[in-house]
Amino acid sequence: MRFFDSLKVIPQYLIPKHLLSQGMHWLMQVEVPWIKNTIIKVLTKLYKIDISEAENEDIETYPHFNAFFTRALKADVRPIDDNPQNWCSPVDGVVSQSHPIQGNQLIQAKCHDYTLEALLGGDIGYAQNFINGDAAVIYLSPKDYHRIHMPTDAQLLSMTYVPGDLFAVNPATVRSIPGLFARNERLIIRFTNDHGDFCLIMVGAIFVGSMETVWEGKITPEYGPTIRHWDYQTDQLHFQKGQEIGRFNMGSTVVLVTPAEKISSLGQITQNTSIKMGEMLAQYSDNLTENEL
Predict the structure, then answer these.
(1) In the chain, beta strands by DSSP E
(2) Annotated catalytic residue: which of 18, 149, 176, 210?
(3) What is the rounded distance in angstroms from the CA atom of residue 152 to the CA atom of residue 2?
C-alpha cells in the first residue's frame, strides 16, 4: 500500500499544481459546444455520474462543464432530515475521518496528526472553542453532487481564506502527506447557534478550479498569497438547515469541527461511511427544545 501511495503522491510535489488548477478552471468554462459537450459526456461516463438526479437532464443545454458539474438536483432526490436535534450532511461524499479531538490534535491518518490551530489558519483564540471537541471529514469524489449546504440552522459569523498547497485529497494522499487539510488552500467558515459555535472548512485541492460561497461569490481563482478575512457579525446572515451555502468545482473535502460535548456523535461515525446531502449525520448531545432552537 505504501509503495503504491508513493507512486501517486511523489509526482504532486513536482508538478505546478496552482498552474494546472488554473488551466482546469479555464477548461471547465469553455463554451464552444462540441468541446464542452464532449467533456461532459466523457467525464460523465468516466465517473459514472447519475444524470437522472439532475434538475436539467439535457447535458447539451449547460453553457459549460462547470455549470454541469455544479448542477442543481431535482427537489425530491435529497430530502433534508427534519429533526431539529440532528445535523444533516452538508454534502454528498464519504466520511473519511471521524473522531473526538484529543486536546487540540486532530487525526488525519496513521502517524499524521495535525492541530486545530493549523487547520484554522493560526487563529489560536478561535481554536480554543474546539478543544476536546469532535471532528469529521467528508471527501467528495468527482461523481458526487458538488453544492454545499447547511448542516443545521445557524448564523454566519465570519470567513477566512487561507492560501496554501493544492495537493489531491484522495485516500492515498491523505495517508501520505502530513497535515494535508491544514496545508492545502481552504475557506474557514464560522457559524453559531443556540448550541454554540461550529466551523465548516472547505478544503481546496488540485483541479478544484474554484471555491465559492453564496454570500461572496467566487473566492478562487485567483489564488492569493495572503490570508483574507470577512466579518459578518453585524450582517445578521442566517441560514436554515439544508440551505445552499457554497460550491466546489471537481472533487474536494469538507471538514466539520464542533465544541466539546455538543455533538459527540459527529466524532463517532464509522470510517468510509457513504452519505448523501440531507441525510442525518450526527445529533446534538444537549437537549434544547424546538422552541429554543
Answers:
(1) 86-88, 93-100, 105-109, 112-115, 134-140, 147-149, 154-162, 186-193, 196-203, 211-213, 217-220, 228-231, 238-239, 244-248, 252-258, 273-275, 280-283
(2) 149
(3) 38
- Give the separation between CA 78 and CA 73, rounded to whole angstroms: 8
pTM of the model: 0.86
User: Catalytic site residue 92?
Assistant: yes
The answer to whether residue 208 scores a pLDDT higher than 70 is no
Q: Whole-angstrom Cα distance, residue 261 to residue 286?
A: 8
Residue 194 phi, psi dihedral angles, 5° rounding: -65, -20
Given the residues 96, 176, 210, 252, select the one marked as catalytic.
Answer: 252
Q: Is 236 exposed, middle or buried (0-12, 13-18, 19+ CB in 10 A)?
A: exposed
Active site residue 149: yes
Give residue-wise pLDDT tens across range 43-98: 889 888 999 999 999 999 999 888 888 899 998 999 999 999 999 999 999 999 99
List 18, 81, 89, 92, catalytic entry: 92
Distance from chain centroid for Cα 112: 20
DSSP β-bridge partners for residue 228:
161
Q: Are 108 and 179 in contact (CB under 8 A)?
A: yes
| Closest to 18 in 3D by CA, of 219, 247, 207 | 207
CA 215 to chain centre: 16
Q: Where are the alpha helices (DSSP H) in the chain?
A: 2-14, 17-28, 33-47, 65-69, 116-119, 124-127, 171-176
Considering only CA atoms, give the Rg of the chain: 19
Q: Comparing C-alpha atoms, which of 6, 2, 36, 25 is closest to residue 205?
A: 25
3-class SS of residue 132: coil
